[in-house]
Amino acid sequence: MYFQLQNLEKHSSVLESARDELLAMLAETISLALEDGKKGILRIDTYDAKRPREFINEEQEGIMMEWAKYLSRRSLGKHPELFGTIDEAQRVTKNTWQILSEELGDGDPNENHVFVYAKLLKEVGCSLPDPGSRDFIKPSFLAAMDDERSWKAVVAQLLISLLPLEFLPEVLGFNLHYELVSLEAMTAARELKDLGVDPSYFLLHICIGNADSGHTAMALMNVIDYLETIKETGCKRTIDEQ
Question: Which Pfam families does the protein's record reference (predicted)?
């Protein structure tokens, strides 16, 4: 399905099952999240405009506390925790319109995040075929990319992009999740630099995704604006369900 979604002009028949497949993936994700207890954003039982911001602040505070601990360990001479060598780096490194524009480099191909990430992969010796090509799903490459969750995640993103109006709340939620600056991104930026590898991809995301004025803040405001609009139109039941 991944290849078909990447090449819709030749595989338009996949659109017939796109909605059902996406709903199944979303249902599976919610089910797994509920099994793990009310963690992450599921801690918000009922909506009000303050809770999403409080949630983001709590998440960022937790990440910064872990980051401080990490820096302390490194200052004491502890070893890198994500990338010990270049080989490990290769293995592990696998307003909405404004966010999209900036992700695409604002018209500058050299700032396009996909291009920057491809440069990083090439620098650590990981040359992959074009993601939209049939070579990308050849068995020789699939053997090295056997994490089923990663494939499900990318297929879900491709599917949801086909139905943005019907799944607008999910689109906004996806965006907020992926814009959050993670401890792993901060650690990767530090350790790749230590290895002499250009950490621009991760530095770019850390800077542009910050929760004060960057993509995280913008994505959060998109979520709040949407929910406030729903609230003002009297669709409280819709908010609770979503």
Answer: Haem_oxygenas_2
